[in-house]
Amino acid sequence: MIEDRYDIAFVANLAKREKQIQQNYRPVIAVHKWFARRPGTLFRALMLAEFSALSLQDAFYQAGNLSGKTIADPFMGGGTPLLEANRMGAHVRGCDINPMAYWIVRQEMEYLNLQDYRAAADELRKTLERELGHLYRTRCEVCGNPEAHAKYFLWVKGADCHHCGNPMDLFPGYLVAEDVRHPKNVFVCAECGQLTETSDRKNSWLCVHCRAPLPIAGPAKSSRCRCSRCGEETTYPNGTKTPLRHRLFAIEYHCPDCKPKHQGRFFKAPDAEDLAKAAEAENRLAALAPQYIPDDAIPAGDETTRLHRWGYSHYRELFNSRQLLGLETSCRLIATQKDERIRNALATNLSDLLRYQNMLCRYDTMALKSLDIFSVHGFPVGLVQCESNLLGIENGGGLPAGSGGWLNIIEKFAKAKAYCDKPFEVRHQGTTRGGRKVTVPISGEWIGDVRNGEAKRVLDIACADAAGRDWQPESLDGVFTDPPYFGNVQYAELMDFCYVWLRRLVGAGNAAFSAPSTRHAQELTGNESMQRGLAHFTEGLAQVFSRTAAALKPGAPFAFTYHHNDITAYFPVAVAILDAGLICSKVLPCPAEMGASIHIKGTGSSTVDSIFVCRRRQDRTILKPDDIDNAVRDDMQALETGGLTSTLGDTRCVTYGHIIRQAVNDLVADWKTQRPVEDKLDILARWFVSFGGQEAVRGLTGENCSHNSQYSYSNQTSLPIAVKGSAHGPISV
Ligand SMILES: C[S@@+](CC[C@H](N)C(=O)[O-])C[C@H]1O[C@@H](n2cnc3c(N)ncnc32)[C@H](O)[C@@H]1O
Ligand SMILES: [Zn+2]
Ligand SMILES: [Zn+2]
Ligand SMILES: [Zn+2]
Hints:
It contains 21 helices and 23 strands. The chain is of the alpha+beta class. The chain folds into two domains: 2-111 and 417-489 and 525-707, Vaccinia Virus protein VP39 (Rossmann fold, 3-Layer(aba) Sandwich), CATH 3.40.50; 117-173 and 217-404, no CATH class. The strands form six sheets. A seven-stranded mixed sheet has the order 19-2-1-20-21-23-22, sandwiched between helices. Strands 3, 4, 5, 12, 13 and 16 form a six-stranded antiparallel sheet that branches. Strand 1, helix 6 (80-87) and strand 2 (91-96) form a beta-alpha-beta unit. 50% of the residues are buried. Residues 596-603 and 706-731 have low confidence and may be disordered. Bound molecules: S-adenosylmethionine and zinc ion (3 copies). Residues 140, 142-143, 145, 148, 255, 257-258 line the site of one zinc ion.
C-alpha cells in the first residue's frame, strides 16, 4: 500500500529531475502542449507502491503489472496518471471538461504507425517547401547566398504620434541580441534601421552605417512612447479598436554555406527582397478564400481581456499574413490525408505548431530563440514579436536550427510516439546530486490500446464534466488524479487559441468539438469573468470526488495532488474528501513544478505538491491526530535527502497538507453532506481558527524563528473570492 511503501526521498529525486527537463523523462508529453503537467514518475511511484509487492526502488525499474485493474482520472488534463496506468497494462477511464484535453490524451495513447506517419509528415513538408519555401529564404549578408534560411523575423509594433502624426516604432530597447550565445551585442539603429555589432554594452557606441548613437533603452516604456520629432508623449494601446501595426526590422538567419566558418549567429536588417516576400504573403493571403482560418471572436475573460485592450477582437488577428498563409496551406494538405490516425496526428501537430506561429511570440535576446505564446500562463502582448520559420530548418547534424517550425514539431512528436512503443526510465548512479544518467528500457511496458494481438486494453477517454459522469459501482481499483488548483490556470481561455483551429480541421462529426469554445460554466477554476468563486469550486470538486469515490472497489485508493499558496484554497479539498465519504490516511510531499518556471520564479511560490492518499471511510479506521510538527520536519528532511532545496513556501504547502488531513479526520464524525456549501466552508474556516490559524502555521513552518523568511503572510491570505462566513459573519483566516 502507498501508505507504507511510498518513498518520499526516492520519488522527490526523480520528480525533481523530471520537472527540470520533462521531455527527457516522459517524451510522450511532446504530443501537444498542456499546462502544469505533473511528473509521470510520481504517479508511477504511487501506483507501484500500491500494487507491487516489491520495495518501490526495486519495482520502479522493472515492468509493472496492472493488467486487469481499472484506474480512473476524472480530471485528466494532459493525461499523466492515465498514461502511467495504461503503460503498466491497466484499463483506464478518464474525462476532462476541456475538449483539447480529451483530444490530446487520445493522441498520446492511440497506436500510431510511425513509419507511415513519418512518410506523410515528410511529404507535407516537401509540399509546403514547394509552395511557400521561398517566403522563408533570405540573402546571406556574408556570402550573398540568396537561399539562406530566415530563422526568426523580428517585428516591432508601431503607432502614430498623437500630437504630430509622426509614425513611431514602439521600441522598448534597441538591443536585438546579447553577447551570450553570440560573440557580439547586436543593436538596431533608430535613425537608419541598420544593425551594428558591438563588443560590449558598457561603452556608448555609434551606428557603423550612419554614426547615430546606439542607446540600449528605447522610447517606449510603461504604455508611453516619446516622439522623436515633437518630443511629446503618446500612450498605447490607448483603447485602440484594432491591433497596432507591425514593422519587420531584423532577421536572424542561417546560412548553411557560411555556417562552418562563421562564429555565432547571423543577423541582418531586412532588405528589399525580404520586404517583397512579406508583401507577397499578404497578397496571396488576400486572394485566398480561407477554409480553415478561424473567424471566431475572442470572448472576454480573465486572461483574454488583455487582448481586447490591445485591439485584438478575433483570433486570426494574432497572426501575420505569412503565418496565416502557411497555416491555411498546412490545414488544406492535412485535410487530404486518407488515413484517419495520420490525419489526426498531423492535425495535432498543427495545433501545437500554432503556439510558435503567431504574433504574440517573443524573442529571447539572451537565449536567441522564440518564446512561444504559452511560455507563461496568460497572453502577454509584447512590443517586439518573433515570427519563426514555418518549415523548420535542417542543420545537417540532425538537430533543427531554430525552433517553432514543422520540422521541430514532427521530430518531437515522432520521439514521443516512439517512446510509447518502448518506454524507459532514467536511473541516476552515484550521489543524489550528481552522478551518471543511465537510460533503463522497461521492456514489457508500452502505451496504447492494442499491440501484437495482446489483450486489448480499455481506453475510455471522454470529454465530459466529471461532476455529471456516472461510474459503475465497485469498478475502480484506484483513482489517481490531479484536480484543478483554484484559479491558478485558465485552461479553457488559453486552449481556445488552439481549439478554434483544430475544431475546423477535425471537428466535423465529433461531438467533443461541437461548442465554439472550450469554456464551460462547470469548469472548476476560480474565474472572475465567469463569476466562479470558491463555492462553485467546492461544490464541483465535492460532486466529482463523491461520484468517483463511490465507484471504488473496497480498500482501493483515491490519491490526488494539490498545492496552493493560500490555506483557504484547501478548504474545498477538505469538503470534497468529507462529502465523498473518504478518510485521508496519508499526506505525502513531492516536487511537482519546475523552480525556474517563468510563472513561479521570483514569486516565492511553492513547487511542492501534497499528495492526499484517501480511502473510503468504511475501509479504514479513523486515525489518531497527527503530530504535525514531526510530520512536517520528517517530510522536509526526506525532500532534502531527495536533493530538493526547499523554500519557506514549500514548507508552508507541506504544512497545509498535514493541517487539512487533520481537519478532515477531526471533522469526519459530525460531517453532514447536506449542509449548504457556504456552511461547510465556514466549518473549515472555523476549524482552522480553532487550530490556531496563521499563527499556528508560522509556528509549524519555523517562520517565527527564521531569519531568512521570504514571506509576508498578510499579503498571501486572501483569495480573489473570499470565504464568506455564513451564520456568524465573515471569518478572517
Ligand atoms: C491540474 S489539471 C490536470 C493536469 C494533468 N494531471 C496533467 O498532469 O497534465 C486539471 C484538469 O481538470 C479539468 N477540469 C476542470 N473542471 C472540470 C470538470 N468539471 N470536469 C472534468 N474536468 C475538469 C481541467 O480542464 C484540467 O485539464
Ligand atoms: Zn552565407
Ligand atoms: Zn544608423
Ligand atoms: Zn510627435
